[in-house]
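Suppose a classmate hands you a notebook page containing two proteins, each written out with its sequence and a corresponding row of structure tokens. How would you begin to make sense of it? This section walks through that situation. The first entry is reproduced here exactly as it would appear on such a page.
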Amino acid sequence: MLLTIVCTALGTIILLAVYFDLWATVLHPGIESPLSNRFHRAAWRTLCILSKVVPRPDRLLYAGLPLLIGGLILLWLILLGGGFALLYYPWVGNPAAFNTPPDVTGSWFDALYVSGTTLFTLGYGDITPLTKPLRILAVIEAGSGMATMSFAVAYVLAVYPSLSRLRIRAIALDAEVASHSSGMPMLRRYLLSDGRWNGDMDDRLREMALELLELTENHEAHPILYYSHPPRVEQSILRMLLTVQNLIGSLRYGLSPERHADLVHNPQVLLLEQSFSYSLRRLSVSLHTSLTEPPEKSSGQEDYHEAFARICGELENLGLVSARQINEHPVSVLAQGAPNADMAATGTGDPATKTSPLERNALTYDPALDQHSDTASEAYITFRVATDRHIAAYAATSGYTISEAIRNDETAWAVE
């Protein structure tokens, strides 16, 4: 009796876990599936460890996505077979419950055999249930096997098209920046001879923001995309994120807001930065990766100052006015969030400087009006610190390092 209770309870728990995982992974991808996500993380860590000892690590990581998908489907089938075998095990040796050949003793192997032939609808008929509950259970298992294979096909047909679209976005952006992660070739292409910007740039910036949101939604719907390791770094989402970060750093923090206000405060540039910040936060949350603390302002400024100077120098080479030349009102940092949100919500602060709720809301949440950075380089450093830690978390999963992703390779893309 105790064996029957234990096997029934354990088998039921396993089956419910598989059914929920199928529902969350395939039918309702907006809900995180704990079983498949944990399996993917554990399997990817194993592949990363193995890649350090094999002669061609890139090939192993490149095969990671199909291995994880195949492994997940196999895991579903194994757990379904094992769960139903637990339900059959107390009864398979009972002649009143199963019609069995003389050599069947009711062992665990016999229970697995009954479950396997039923799950894959082999229909041998050598061991058949006799009672109504067991017959109903066999029908449920056969239906579960067919449904699981159908869900597996639907899952594959959902993941690979999403992966193709993301890689096309990454390759197109890489072509647009001529494989220079700084993004300067793209800015040069949209810069007219008289120093004004091509009117098509607004559309491209908005399109880029929408691509970032699409990337985020696809990753949250199909977390297995985190473990896609393309054969070339130019196809990676990590390279795309770093290129967008550099573009925002140039447009928002590298250009002089006085001389290029039409671009620095352009609504599409603000949309791009807000979408970028949102995407990084969402990717970090769904990755379940602890963020590396950013360097303290006192110890990590030197590299950031060098990066800011390099951006300004590249912009000046294009004939533009950089923020280090003229910058009386540094721009706000959207990735840092609204700095006075709590004050605006509670109405606290200096009574002498209180404004009306409408004015306070505008000054707090409108990035075009919020001016709170002391210097241009300070604004750039704040932006980099707020975004670098999220990108580092994504890089830890992508299989590529940040240094590999920012390398400017000589490719077929022509630099204008």
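The notebook's second entry, a different protein, reads as follows.
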Amino acid sequence: MTKNKIRLYGFNACPYCQEIKKLYEENNIEFTYVDIEIEENKPEVDKIMKIGKTDSVPVILVNKTILAPDVSFKSIKEAFELTKKFLND
């Protein structure tokens, strides 16, 4: 599989974040997890949230496409399917 760039923004107590992480792991999809609660991640998180026009998580950056809840997807299953679609583009 080619090396795609997926960054998943979330926090550990978020059940939706854990659900999408599990789907990626079960399907051998490589991703980088960015914990929004860690202070050193704040500048990057603020930028992504602003560009994605959201304050909800999980936010998924696939290559150069931002997938945000309620904007890009309504369910974790839909977020997963969109991720796969953008990986194959």
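A careful reader of the second entry would note: DSSP finds three helices and four strands in the chain.
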